[in-house]
Design brief:
The chain is of the alpha/beta class. Helices cover 35% and strands 13% of the residues. Strands 2-8-7-6-5-3-4 form a 7-stranded mixed beta sheet, with helices on both faces. Helix 10 runs parallel beside helix 12.
Amino acid sequence: MQNTNNYKHLFELDEGITYLNCSSMSPLLKAVQDAGISALERRAKPWKLTDKDWFENAEVLRRKASKIYQSSEDNVAIIPSASYGLATSAKNLKVKPGKSIVVIEDQFPSNYYVWEELSQKLGLKILTVKKQNDKLLTDNILENINSETGIVAIPNCHWMDGSLIDLEKISEAVKTVNAHLVLDLSQSLGALPLNINKIDPDFAVSVGYKWMLGPYSLGYMYVSPRWQEKGEPLEQNWSIRKGSDDFAKLTGYTTEYRPGARKFDMGESAQFNTLPMSIAALDQILKWRVENIQSHIKVLTNIISENLNKDKNYQKPLTPNAGHIISIPVGNRSIESLKKKLSENKIFVSIRGTNIRISPHLYNDATDIDKLINYLG
């Protein structure tokens, strides 16, 4: 893999733009945009579609996504959003009243509201783990997993600042107390290597428009084999049933589902417009390899980290960051003035809580980071 500064030309980025906000939404690869245009042109002429077109691309995408999860294609469902996958998870996890659902402080809303609703429905408790600078976030979570734990619902890294969580350690603790583990990987899948089979969660969801470099409204859900038979899909769409690829027999209603995690696929999973775009995106990720993406982005975030460490007023947190996301405290800066200054100079980051969140990708290089640091003063 070549140096990161060779990849800017592969993305739809205007001249002079310094885009450091992949955690919000990735710019499209030109190959993804081209795939989308071709897909729209094909969709405009439905008489050219064949029966297999309703299923074939979904299977291609499923195979490619499974490689990023490092799992079997039978363990991956195609979903429209992380919230859809989390709602599916909540529907299936029957937890006894009085048990707790462990989340982390300032968790992304889609991975909080669904558990708040479930807690009210089943008589459960929400246990929020607060971050402490003198402790690892992983250790904070582990201290709150016990015999009263029913579900642990967490990300791989915090969406606001990139704080990293050791999922293998969490998984081991969850299994020790016979609880359930649900993961939101929206801020890590595609940029941070993981072996989902080793972590072995019940469910693990991700959007497709951030680090997976694809279009909006198409995402991915890992479903543990232990849920594929007994689990219930969120909806009963026609295409998840066994034999649904035989259009002549669609009204020969059956109680059987297609194999593996396919029973959890969203309705209209054929997605004629977006599937080709997602396939093109995953083709590029698999070509680069996730471990290489992580190591190259980490070179850039390390520049920021080294610059922060020179600031005597900066208190470095004990919990390490994922290599693809780093944050700088807003401090005494005016948030509105900061946003205006960066926008005027075509620098794009996110303000999340009290942090300036910076999330580069392979379209960035050291000059982008130097420019950001210069304007932050």
